[in-house]
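=== RUN LOG ===
request id: a7f3
mode: sequence -> structure
chains: 1
length: 320
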Amino acid sequence: MHYHLTQHQRIELSLLLRLGHSQRKAAQILGVSPSTVSRELRRNARTSGKYHATTARLHSRDRRAEANALRVKLFNEPLARVVEQKLRANWAPEQIAGWLKATRKRLSVCTQTIYDWVYRFRHDLLKHLHCRKGKYRRTRANTLRKAYRDKQKECRRITARPAHVMKRQRYGHWEGDTVVGKGRSGYLATFVERKSGYLVAVKLERATAKNFEWAASWSLGQVPQQYRKTLTLDNGTEMSNYEEIERSTGTKLYFANPYHSWERGTNENTNGLLRFYFPKQMSFTHLKQPDIDEAVKQLNTRPRKRLGYRTPEQVFRSKW
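=== RESULT ===
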């Protein structure tokens, strides 16, 4: 079993590396094996190769959530037993998925999920796959992420955004993001006006580009055109239809730099307030839009110190 660093150890490791210590020396100071440090850097470093504790925590969290979601899909269920039985009979994953769909619709599963399950959790079944590889299969999701990264190279970064937006002197500049339910059971698309803190939130069943595009168009569509000037987004793949959002809303879009959540500080802080109503350990499966609207109403009608104890609704809607 591999040993995983705690967040406190990650912070220490980040500091030790910045001070110029080698991986072996850092491992000795932390009281862990050199292989533990090497694995941590290999799995959780930034794309630039530099290591930062916050980035490492996010990478580890996302990987664990993805793995847990897959376990929920194919563990401790009749489905797992059926899939294992057919694999041991040397059926191909595509054949299993097609057969289940045609005969047992209540136990359906897609081909890629079977491959993911085998390559991640059931190495004992690898010998039954017709196409055996020593490394993880390239998935459609990986291909989509690469296409999105290529597309992001062409997007408009926050460094190109007018400087006056940072000062919160004018209305109509927004920030957007998604809030994730436990086990990716649902999502909230959130949009916050920077000067007033006025919030709009919409539930998404799935965090797809089309769903987020719809949420952004609907949310900003409730606001007069003169008060939707810019929208600054995170770097999630669900935001890849940014050109369509610009066309439908007349809003100029910008993207924060990767792992620079503070560049959307208003949105991050507001999402934190929203978590009071919808905690991280809460499933969004049965969450309804009226529940979200009620939470948003309470936040929009709560006095804020920075607004002179007026509410976001009073400050923003008075301009309409």
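=== NOTES ===
The beta strands are 173-180, 187-193, 199-204, 230-233, 252-255.
The two ends are 60 Å apart (CA to CA).
=== END ===
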